[in-house]
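Researcher: Last one for today. Full complex below.
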Amino acid sequence: MKYFGARQLLITLLAAFALWGIVAIGCLCAGSTGFHWPTHEQMAIRRGSVLTASLIGLALGLAGVVYQAILRNPLADPYLLGVSSGATLAAYVWHLPIFGLIFGSSVLGIAAGEEVFAFAGALLAVGIVFLLAMRRGRLDPITLLLVGVIVNSINGALFLLLNAIYRDLPSNGGPLTFLVGGIQTNLTTAHQVIAAAIIFAGFAIILYLAGQLNVASTSDAEAMALGIRIYRLRWISLIAASLVTAAAVALSGPIGFIGLICPHVARLFVGSDQRRLIPISAALGAGLLAIADAASRALSSEALAQTILPVGVLTGLIGGPFFLFLLWRDRRRGNRGAI
Amino acid sequence: MSEAQTILRCEQISFAYRRAPVLDQIDLSLMTGEVVSILGPNGSGKSTLLKLLLGELRGKGQISWEGKAIGRWPRRELAKLVAYLPQNPLIEETQSAAEVLAMGRAPYWGAFGIENEKDVAVIEAVIEKLQIDQAWLSRRMDQLSGGQRQRILIGRCLVQQAKVLLLDEPTNNLDVKYQLQILSLLRELAKNEGLTVLMSGHDINLAAEFSDRLVMLSEGKKVADGPPTQIMQAELLERVYGIGVEVITRNGGGLVVIPRHSSTTLTTG
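Model: Here's the assembly. Have a good evening.
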């Protein structure tokens, strides 16, 4: 009988790190000038780009696996739940002139305020989804998707409205970035450091709870009988996952499907044990988004795209069909209740 | 085995969903090593009673485990004393039987869900005790038969090293062979290890054969509590279930309850 000790935890973390490391090195080599080891100047630019993409991907892969565990729903994902668009909208609202007047304009203050607003937006979105899709302690998968779609549309519409009124706001690469998500190139170091701190803190909290999240797959009564304070666990994980999502999308806008794909792919490799699943899913997220980012950089050299393609375009192109595949597979299994 | 002691004492427990009363002033106690079955028609409050004893639901009245009020037990500590299996356990289809068994160690886990050799030793002892086939362990739960699955889930309760099992219809959906297997297993654990079992059920004859005591609930009230021979009375059963009943004595002694088809309420309207 195998068991999961401190050694296994360490091995899992190292494997996750190695997985990401290999991908990241590959991504450093990709650029608009072809595939080769970067020159000194290219390195400076690409390193930031790869690290930012990895950080955002890590956050989304992590949030996805947590949402799927605590909502007991394999279709849960920060993007589909509307969390990402809620956070992006709120982070954008932060830049309205009125808040600048109230809170001043130091670089650190702007970055921190943006994260706070993004977090509030994420919680508000997830709160609405909970309120409308919860039936007797369970989230109905179809209602969940419907509410997520609507919340996304409302957030999108509000964003475009604000964007039309306030044309000269800084940050966020315009309406396109909001709709598909993309990694901004004009981020300050304060932005990146604050986001990284929040995301790694969230990662630590979630990893600490990993064993308990395994038990969250049972009913509430069973989880309690196994000594888990299930309601507290659910709240803490939900807040941690939303915080991590908010920190990430404040940098990038709502990038879709990373949070949906990574847990599923990770499950193919390590099974459903959250203690292995969480680090691997996070690493896959980091790797996958770094690849998507590198690919959009490489594509920008081709004639088809004169500007850098927002990375959300690629994740949407891969993730959308993957989502349809999941639906199709579960329909074939006749497993409508749980999807 | 040591002298039996009172492990659970309930006084005057009542519970209502919204305004509708479900349980009304129930007194109940359990001694260590006792196997007790709760019987009663659908909706008589059996499942609710078990959930109150687990602390998932809170009602009126006093519930104390080992002399300590239920509200004063930390969740983790209570989990080391009392294990519970609901009528329809929720199982993640992709989880393997081994993972489900390992979950029973949750009350003993450290941070990050880290396990040690002791956890493995306990799980292996349970696998041996329940004669769980090694081949099942790597299988996904949805690839096991109903009986195998139930065995794994009862195994999870034993892995908890609890002294009391609260089982809500543990033989639900099992064929007769598995019903007998599970019930004799519980009987044996009570006899050999002093495990206390409180379970709900519908088959009065099976319950009588494997229990020391039967508790009869009807419309949220406890109407009878005693050794099987005392409960298996035609007059009591007819009143509780609203059907005609015949109680006959078997060859080897012991009573058997047979419902009379002709006078069921279904046919009379």
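The mean pLDDT of chain A is 84. The two ends of chain A are 31 Å apart (CA to CA).
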